[in-house]
Design a protein that fits this description.
Aspartate Aminotransferase, domain 2; Aspartate Aminotransferase, domain 1; 2 domains; 5-stranded mixed sheet; 15 helices; binds pyridoxal-5'-phosphate
């Protein structure tokens, strides 16, 4: 009988297409989709042992499912983490983290320039459960340090941030967190494990919106948390069993297949984003471009060191204009003049997407929160896909060249 277990020491690109649960008795080449809500048990004794977690085996998909497990194993392997747990969305991954790592009276320090719903969840929703969050400038390590209190349990960063592509030095933040007995959690949705593997840099927990680059074709919602077995398997998995934030096997299968092309997509989209960002920087109607791959980005050196020499697949830019009203009108004009790009707030898709963060992803924040995050009315975010660059430039030029 051939040994089908993978040898140790494989590269992430190999694990991205090979790591999965064992094939079924049918020998399928593409991983099977186990679209079933429950599993038939051979007898009541065995069923009792499985429900009591005394015997391995599947019982009910909210608890575990082989397709979901394949995704968890593959993502953990790519991340260089020991464990991963899949969730229904990126936000449910962050909720899972918050509800298992924090209790009433605890404190979080978090970046003030993260995705809008993350700010809402950590800043407002968790406050109802007695958890307090202090938001700090993502890029200022001294501000993180100053905000830490004796009851600080988690430092939460998103690097690069949505939409301004601010970074944080993951290794430095991990050292800071650990020196104060706290955990560092990093939202790695923008970089993906292809560009950066936060666990390898000292982070304790890595969260993903699988809806973004991991799927990569805008099909399904998904999320995940990667970390140590002590946290993921001992604390998060039992909570998941009763909380039901579980990922559907169908969505898991789609993301599992997405991971197989992740490396190729991220590298190609990153190269295109760099070209587009440099080109936008030269346009007279563009006030400023935010892209870590550009030498003008204030953390360019850190980005090159931390993200494998690549800037990522998302860039943002401010259009020129005077006052909030005109800036908003100009940004809307550029967005509405596109015919190839999709006007949608999702990102990480092979189809280029364009959006106005101040009225979409960050629209529910207060003006103060938006100002703190640096998101103005003239800001446009582009998630670069796989179309020909000339077509994307022509698409953006239509609106930029006709701005008054
Ligand atoms: C950085 C980041 N984290 C988390 C999320 C939330 O993910 P989901 O939409 O899958 O819940 C998003 C969504 O845009 C995001 O951009």
């Amino acid at each position: 009988m051939t040994d089908t277990t993978l040898p140790p020491g494989l590269h992430p690109d190999t694990l991205a297409v090979r790591e999965a649960v064992e094939r079924s008795q049918w020998g399928e080449h593409s991983e099977a989709l186990y679209l079933t809500s429950s599993f038939v048990q051979s007898d009541s004794e065995s069923s009792a042992r499985r429900f009591a977690m005394e015997e391995p085996g599947y019982t009910y998909t909210r608890t575990a499912n082989p397709t979901v497990e394949s995704l968890e194993r593959r993502l953990a392997a790519m991340e260089g983490a020991e464990s991963a747990i899949a969730t229904s969305t990126g936000m449910s991954a962050i909720l899972l983290l918050a509800l298992t790592m924090l209790k009433s009276g605890d404190h979080i320090v978090a970046s003030q320039s993260m995705f809008g719903s993350t700010i809402k969840l950590l800043g407002s929703e968790m406050a109802r459960f007695g958890v307090e969050t202090t938001f700090v400038s993502q890029t200022d390590i001294a501000a993180w340090q100053a905000a830490i209190r004796p009851n600080t349990r988690v430092l939460f960063a998103e690097t690069p941030t949505n939409p301004l592509t601010d970074l944080c030095d993951i290794a430095a933040l991990a050292d800071l967190a650990h020196a104060h007995g706290a955990l560092l959690a990093v939202d790695n949705s923008f970089a993906s494990p292809v560009l950066q593997r936060p666990v390898q840099l000292g982070a304790d927990l890595v969260v993903y919106s699988g809806t973004k680059l991991l799927d990569g074709q805008g099909r399904v919602m998904a999320g995940a948390v990667c970390g140590s077995p002590a946290i993921v398997e001992k604390t998060m998995a039992p909570f998941m069993r009763c909380a039901g934030l579980s990922l559907s096997p169908f969505n898991a299968w789609v993301v599992l297949k997405g991971l197989e092309t992740l490396s190729l997509r991220v590298k190609a989209e990153s190269a295109a984003a760099l070209d587009l960002a440099a080109w936008l920087e030269g346009h007279p109607k563009v006030a400023r471009v935010y892209y870590p791959g550009l030498p003008s980005h204030r953390q360019h050196e850190l980005a090159m060191r931390q993200q494998g020499g690549m800037g990522g697949t998302v860039l943002s830019f401010d259009v020129l204009g005077q006052g909030a009203e005109q800036l908003r009108a100009n940004a809307f004009h550029v967005i509405d003049s596109t015919r190839v790009c999709s006007i949608t707030a999702n990102l990480g898709d092979v189809k280029t997407t364009i959006t106005h963060p101040a009225s979409t992803s960050h629209g529910r924040l207060t003006e103060d929160q938006r100002q703190a995050a640096g998101i103005g009315q003239g800001l446009v975010r582009v998630s670069v896909g796989l179309e020909h660059l000339d077509d994307l430039k022509a698409d953006l030029l239509r609106g930029l060249d006709s701005l008054q």
